[in-house]
Design brief:
heterodimer, A: 20 helices, B: mainly alpha, three-stranded mixed β-sheet, two-stranded antiparallel ribbon
Chain lengths: 513, 631
């Protein structure tokens, strides 16, 4: 029977899940005028409570991993690191959401919390069934969140595309897990590791790994399993897009790392053979992602392609299956989470002021109208491009160094080329913001694709203001955005200047193979 | 190896001052408040330097202080600060003299519209210079090195409306760029051989490297040192740099920045001493600059250019000291020179103001009667530079020259003594022309009699006292420095007795000969100058030699003919032909290729769900095929 000892490892994510229920309950019980403030307060309280549980958990996992529910959930340093990064992200996303207008705010916030708790659970899955369930928990929450603004055609379209493709990917993942179960006879990761070490591998096992890889690559948005990302990011409310870019990526990367560490057979040259497709996907994602960034006219689509490019960068150090590579991935991952949440946060701030929305053409001369936001926009895009002393530069540098040591020169070359190409795209956004109004944007053609042309100018459009919330929301929205952006800036610069502080904390999360 | 947070304050305070006062110039904040802030920042930085020095004394000579700023997570590449016998010594002089010159500038620049901007740049210089001297590795040193170059550029061109100032700033930048290339190449040689750029890793094992590596590293670094320290043959930017405001000339182009080359040689002395060609190259550069600078100073007519060539000559003495192994003596002369040369420049600033902005010493004269304070402080500085005992210049210069003899270089010794005679001559010529004789007809009596502002008086007095008593400071102790050679710790005089041909000199004999000869030569040179240019001066005919000296012996002309014009022609050729057709063609070609690739990629994403699903399925099939067939 599960006891209270089983609850300690899952306390942070349980706090978020319970928080999601409390948010909905508060909406039902609270007086109408206070519903929104209470929803926000409950959501933030849930994140803070989860953070409190997390600090205790972080202390106890330093001595060794904890397992609960008969090994179905593992809480080790790796899952605790993911949980910590997810809590920061969830906190920032809730803060940015203060600037987001939504009729059913409680539903929105509870879905955000559920998605975050699913992402955290993914990092600690001890068997394939829990892994799949956690994946579906956050995927379903995200489908609903993308379609949340039912009035917008684009939202429905983006959510539908994501749902169809996501269901396909989930199907393949489940099929892959089934094949692995067929070969091994167990869903537990420990049993699978024992089978892989045994050496006598059935063809079912290979095919199962192939299909599982498809499922992970889909969630990571690695080319060619990436096509959902631009439409979904553009359709989603901006804070949700931030959650998708940062959270989905983090959870899927950690789960992928644990999965390949377990499943890839340790003997012989299996590791090289098993990881080659992932290396190819990483290189192709860098190139395709950065090339596609060039012609985007919508900032959220541009950030979606940037997230595809970054998926390539982040997978690259894992390919060698070394603990040092995993540390680097987590380091740059946390940096990327902060950079992308910051960038989406600035876009959300612009949308809130009905200033520009997410159409790049409207960013002309932004500096003259909104100097502070223009500077913040420039900061986050330059950080993504790799400006020192931010984590954008340090992270890429460290990954390049690791790639050279691992002997994957061709991936390093792809990374460098793709960095140069996407730097051009990021600089275009910065230039547009700082050029005086009236000059032409250096965009070759007007439309980036059919869906871009059908899209309205931004998420802020077409939302009726039902409640007289303008007054309180504007002050709180500014505070929330301000705090979130300052935290992101401090993190981006701090990580860039002091990489060793973080790298020491995430050293040796998985054993060397 | 003690960790020390105070070290960080030394560069950070002036940096903060620079940022705040630079940002403040864009606002309506009171200018005097900003200037006060800038001065306070440097003053506190000096206090930090003093405290650091005291803490260093507590751990010396075995240990030194360290502070890590950050590391990049890679071996040997990072930024940290190091407080040892060399760097704390430099930091003290840089921040101390820097603070006095800040004070002086409050009076000097008060009327200038760019008052606050000037202090922001001056603060930035102090930051860069303290990074240069406090860095714990070659990378940090390079960062400081490049930034003092930027600060020097900004301050030489401070009056950027003047074409001459802008041209001088450009010239200084280019010459130093040549030096920086040498420096970087030298560091790369060290990095590739030792695998690290930290002093603590490289210097103690310098002697293990093969001779070729050491020679290459030493000579390449020497190029950087020669350019920064305005030594022969890369000195041409220094006289022109006098276009900057006079406090800048005092701080950057006399007291501190131009000695960065000396700092480099002393800091990296394990390399320079171990390289077969190192000591000879440094000594030749040093003695060449001593004589060249002194000769060129003889013929100058601009007060600041006299002092500029004198700086070149005196830094030459420091280089000579570093070349013959008298590292402590070189540092000693650096400190005393900083005192009296800063005093001379600051005095020159007062003089120039009194003569209505004119810098031509032929049109000056008789200032002594109007300005007794300036007269006495300038006299103290002049005599300290000449090396009259017991003023500070005597001890430090004497220590270097004795070391040359003790190291077994009688010719270097003799030439250095001759240089001292020339020094006495040109300095007293300058002094007599300005302060004695009749008052020039151009000058207005009212202006001559203007009193000197209090802030200037304070700065001048402190420097004058230091010029007098600086010689009694203890010789810097270098024994705890990373990789220090045993001889370096002993300071000026090698312990051994030197054999010169058939006779042997002991240290006391060498000191005796040098001291006596120096005194005689200086008195003769000085007396000659007083006789020729003193109160009863005779009109001097301008000969070919003095014209050549005035032009700096035509080095500039040669450079213009040999380097500048052909390079400009090549550059124009590149600009007109190479760039548009070859480079641009290649760049545009790559850009076009990228654009067409990107257009192709875009065509893959038309937004149709079926096509997305097809792409996904293709991926799945390929993945399955790979794993089922290949694995």
């Amino acid at each position: 029977m599960p006891g209270t000892a089983d609850l300690t490892p899952i306390a942070p994510l349980a706090a978020l899940a319970v928080g999601a229920l409390v948010v909905v309950a508060a909406d039902l019980l609270a007086p109408r005028s206070l519903a929104r403030p209470w929803a926000y307060a409950a959501a933030l309280a849930a994140v803070v409570l989860a953070g409190w549980y997390w600090t205790g958990l972080w202390q106890s996992v330093q001595d060794g991993p904890l397992t609960s529910f008969f090994g179905a959930f593992v809480s080790d340093r790796l899952s605790a690191v993911l949980a910590g990064m997810m809590l920061v992200t969830a906190c920032l996303v809730v803060l940015i959401s203060l600037a987001h207008k939504e009729r059913d705010m409680a539903g929105y916030l509870s879905l955000v919390l559920l998605a975050a708790s699913g992402m955290m659970a993914l990092g600690g899955a001890g068997d394939l069934m829990v892994l799949f369930t956690a994946l579906e928990l956050f995927s379903l929450s995200l489908y609903a969140l993308i379609a949340f603004q039912r009035e917008r055609e684009a939202a429905k379209e983006g959510a539908f595309k994501y749902l169809v493709l996501g269901s396909m990917a989930s199907g393949f993942l489940l099929y892959g897990f089934g094949l692995i179960y067929g070969a091994v006879g167990s869903l537990s990761l420990d049993a699978i590791a024992a089978y892989a070490a045994g050496g006598d591998l059935s063809p079912l096992y290979h095919a199962g790994f192939a299909l599982s890889l498809v499922g992970f690559a889909f969630k990571l948005a690695l080319v060619p399993f990436h096509a959902w990302a631009p439409d979904a990011y553009q359709a989603a409310p901006t804070p949700v897009a931030a959650l998708m870019a940062a959270g989905t990526k983090a959870a899927a990367l950690v789960a992928l790392a644990r999965f390949v560490w377990t499943v890839v057979p340790p003997a012989g040259d299996w590791a090289a053979k098993y990881m080659l497709p992932l290396a190819v996907l990483s290189g192709v994602s860098m190139m395709v992602g950065s090339l596609a960034t060039l012609f985007q006219t919508n900032v959220k689509r541009l950030l979606a392609y940037s997230s595809i490019t970054h998926a390539g960068y982040l997978v690259m150090p894992i390919v060698a299956l070394q603990p040092e590579g995993l540390s680097l991935t987590l380091y740059y991952l946390f940096g990327y989470m902060l950079m992308s949440v910051g960038a989406f946060g600035v876009v959300a701030a612009l949308q809130r002021r009905d200033e520009t929305g997410d159409d790049l053409n409207a960013y002309q001369g932004l500096y003259a109208r909104q100097p502070w936001l223009a500077v913040l926009l420039a900061f986050f895009f330059l950080a993504l491009a790799g400006m020192p002393p931010t984590v954008g530069m340090t992270g890429k540098l460290l990954i390049i160094g690791a790639g050279l040591r691992a002997g994957t020169g061709w991936l390093v070359a792809a990374l460098v080329v793709s960095t140069v190409i996407s730097a051009y795209a990021y600089l275009r956004v910065v230039l547009a913001a700082f050029r005086t109004a009236g000059g032409p944007v250096a965009v070759a053609e007007a439309a980036a694709g059919p869906s871009a042309s059908t899209d309205s100018t931004g998420a802020g459009d077409g939302e009726p203001d039902t409640v007289d919330e303008a007054k309180w929301s504007s002050a709180w929205a500014d505070i929330g955005l301000g705090v979130a952006l300052v935290v992101a800036i401090v993190g981006v610069v701090g990580l860039g200047l002091l990489p060793e502080a973080f790298l020491n904390a995430v050293e040796g999360l998985l054993p060397p193979r | 190896m003690d960790y020390n947070r105070l070290l960080i304050l030394i560069p950070v305070l002036p940096l903060a001052g620079a940022v705040v006062s630079a940002a403040g110039t864009q606002t309506r904040i009171n200018r005097r408040f900003l200037v006060g802030l800038a001065c306070t920042a440097v003053g506190l930085s000096f206090v930090a330097a003093v405290l650091v020095r005291l803490q260093y004394n507590a751990v010396a000579p075995e240990g030194y202080l360290q502070a890590t700023l950050w590391s990049w997570g890679m071996n040997g590449i990072g930024l940290g600060l190091l407080g040892d016998g060399i760097s704390t010594w430099f930091a003290l002089v840089v921040t101390g003299v820097g603070f006095l010159i800040h004070l002086y500038s409050v009076g000097y620049m008060a009327e200038d519209p760019g008052f606050a901007r000037f202090f922001a740049k001056l603060n930035f210089f102090i930051f860069a210079m303290s990074v240069l001297v406090l860095a714990d590795g070659f990378i940090g040193m390079l960062i400081g090195w490049a930034n003092v170059g930027v600060a020097s550029y900004l301050l030489i061109g401070f009056w950027h409306q003047r074409p001459a100032a802008a041209a001088a700033a450009r010239k200084a930048y280019w010459v130093n760029a040549v030096g920086e290339v040498g420096l970087i190449l030298g560091f790369i040689v060290l990095l590739t051989h030792f695998g690290s750029v930290s002093f603590a890793d490289v210097l103690p094992q310098a002697w293990t490297a093969p001779a070729g590596v050491l020679n290459a590293a030493a000579l390449l670094m020497l190029v950087g040192a020669v350019a920064k320290s305005a030594q022969l043959p890369l000195h041409v930017w220094l006289p022109d740099a006098m276009q900057g405001p006079t406090p800048v000339s005092a701080l950057i182009h006399a007291a501190t920045m131009v000695t960065a080359g000396v700092y480099l040689v002393v800091r990296a002395h394990p390399i320079f001493a171990a390289a077969p060609w190192g000591p000879a190259a440094v000594s030749v550069v040093g003695i060449g600059s001593v004589l060249f600078g002194a000769l060129a100073a003889l013929g100058q007519t601009d007060i600041k250019r006299v002092l500029a060539f004198s700086t070149m000559s005196q830094v030459g003495y420091m280089m000579l000291g570093a070349g013959v192994g008298a590292y402590a003596a070189a540092l000693f002369h650096f400190a005393t020179h900083a005192f009296f040369k800063a005093l001379l420049f600051l005095g020159a600033g007062v003089i120039i103001h009194r003569f209505g902005g004119s810098q031509d010493i032929r049109r000056m004269g008789g200032l002594g009667r109007y300005q007794p304070f300036t007269y006495w402080t300038f006299l103290v500085a002049t005599l300290a530079l000449v090396g009259l005992p017991p003023l500070s210049g005597f001890y430090s210069k004497d220590a270097i020259i004795v070391s040359a003899l003790m190291a077994g270089h009688p010719w270097l010794w003799l030439l250095a003594v001759v240089g001292a005679g020339l020094t006495a001559f040109y300095m007293l010529r300058l002094f007599c022309l300005v302060f004695t004789g009749g008052v020039s007809p151009d000058a207005s009596h009212e202006e001559l009699g203007h009193s000197v502002p209090a802030v200037k008086v304070i700065a001048l007095s402190v420097l004058a006292v230091l010029s007098v008593v600086g010689g009694f400071l203890a010789m810097p102790d270098l024994s705890g420095v990373p990789g220090a050679l045993p001889g370096a710790a002993a300071g000026a005089h090698g312990a051994a007795e030197a054999a010169l041909g058939s006779w042997v000199v002991t240290e006391s004999q060498a000191s005796l000969y040098t001291m006596g000869l120096l005194l005689v030569v200086s008195l003769v040179g000085g007396g000659l100058a007083v006789w020729m240019f003193g109160p009863r001066r005779q009109p001097v005919r301008e000969g070919m030699l003095s014209r050549a000296a005035l032009q700096g012996f035509y080095v500039d002309h040669v450079y213009r003919a040999v380097f500048v014009r052909p390079l400009a022609a090549v550059a124009r050729g590149v600009g007109d032909i190479m760039d548009p057709y070859v480079i641009d063609g290649a760049v545009n070609g790559v850009a076009k290729l990228t654009a067409s690739l990107a257009a192709g990629v875009r065509r893959l994403h038309p937004g149709h769900l079926r096509r997305y699903a097809l792409a996904l399925m293709t991926g799945v099939v390929l993945m399955l095929l790979y794993f089922v067939l290949m694995v």
